[in-house]
Design a protein that fits this description.
The chain is α+β, with helices and mostly antiparallel strands. The protein is built from 2 helices and 6 strands; from the N terminus they run ββαββββα. A hairpin with a 2-residue loop joins β4 and β5. It starts with about 45 loop residues before the first strand and ends in a 6-residue tail after the last helix. The relative contact order is 0.19. The protein binds dodecyl-COA (DCC).
Length: about 190
Amino acid sequence: MTAFFPVPADLDPADRAAAAPAPGQRLPGHGRDCYGCGPDAPHGLHLELFAGDGVAVTARMRVRPRFEGGPGTIHGGVLASAFDEVMGHVPTMCGRFCVTGHLQVDFAAPVPLGVDLYLRATALGVQRRKVFTEAHAWIVEPGPDGIAVEPGASGIPVAAAHGLFVQIDPASHYGAVAAGRRSGAQKS
Ligand SMILES: CCCCCCCCCCCC(=O)SCCNC(=O)CCNC(=O)[C@H](O)C(C)(C)COP(=O)(O)OP(=O)(O)OC[C@H]1O[C@@H](n2cnc3c(N)ncnc32)[C@H](O)[C@@H]1OP(=O)(O)O
């Protein structure tokens, strides 16, 4: 799978925060209504996220019928959203809150409805407020609890992604958005 993404050559290493959850620990997610990871989002992806080794995050996701794009296959935007979500959690492993500045996805194989996906995202490095990430997704066999586990040799690679996440101060970033909504924009 080839990809075009301008990753600067002079990135600083992304260091794992001392307070980052231990590898394998379930991550709490952004909020119960988050489209990507919220368990209460009725049309959401319901990604389950876990801390990985180093500055990495893994996720598992069942490809549900409501994710259909082409007949019997996942919509590309759904897979892009899953990558956005799993890569969006990578900066938290460095103790940073970031939002997506740039997201790029390379689709390598169709993903049938009903399969389980395993995603893994890592930090490539940091530069000032920017965190550069990459991620991969595989179709995997369901684990003992019926949900995807880490891909072995049988995992089928289906897509890869790159992201640029920009560090924000959540209070001022989302405070400004909320103020804009109060001044006229409607939530639907
Ligand atoms: C409580 C839970 C909280 C945490 C909650 C986290 C929730 C995450 C949810 C999943 C992720 C999402 O979907 S987030 C939702 C989608 N994304 C968004 O809504 C973001 C909308 N965009 C923005 O708000 C803004 O454009 C920002 C914050 C990204 C950047 O604006 P800014 O703060 O003014 O910073 P700015 O100076 O422009 O940029 C900083 C550096 O980044 C670079 N940069 C900025 N954008 C780009 C870009 N598209 N491509 C290349 N480079 C870029 C600049 O060149 C600069 O580099 P240099 O000069 O240093 O070289």
